[in-house]
Amino acid sequence: MDAVAKGILAGYPKGVADELILPGLDDVRAAAERLVGRAHRTPVLTCSALDSMSGASLFFKCENFQKTGAFKFRGATNAVELLADPERGVATHSSGNHGAALAAAARARGIPAHIVVPENATAVKLAAVEHYG
Description:
Elements: H1 3-9, H2 16-19, H3 25-35, E1 44-45, H4 48-54, E2 60-61, H5 72-82, E3 90-93, H6 97-109, E4 113-116, H7 123-132
Parallel strand pairs: 3-4
Antiparallel strand pairs: 1-2
Helix pairs in contact: 3-5, 5-6, 6-7
């Protein structure tokens, strides 16, 4: 396990960290390939005024332009695409973006999605989950 992985896993209880597997560069590239044609290629923007204020070069990945309005569509779609054919359905608990993303990904794959939404979820988040399926 490299130093970066050890640092990321440092906060987990002993035993749990040993079971977690962090994705490597090949995993990230494979996920990117699975998302081609499924996820939008969202823009990366810069702002010279904010660069000057921060003293750094800042880059803003505009995932608000992604399908379902959030980056969570990428992870949900990747997970759904990794399912074997016998694994024909997904379920989650979400009060917002993850639920909408998983519903959209499942709909695109033609499998059922069961999203449990808390009673106090906002109407707009509930509507998004219902809209995507």
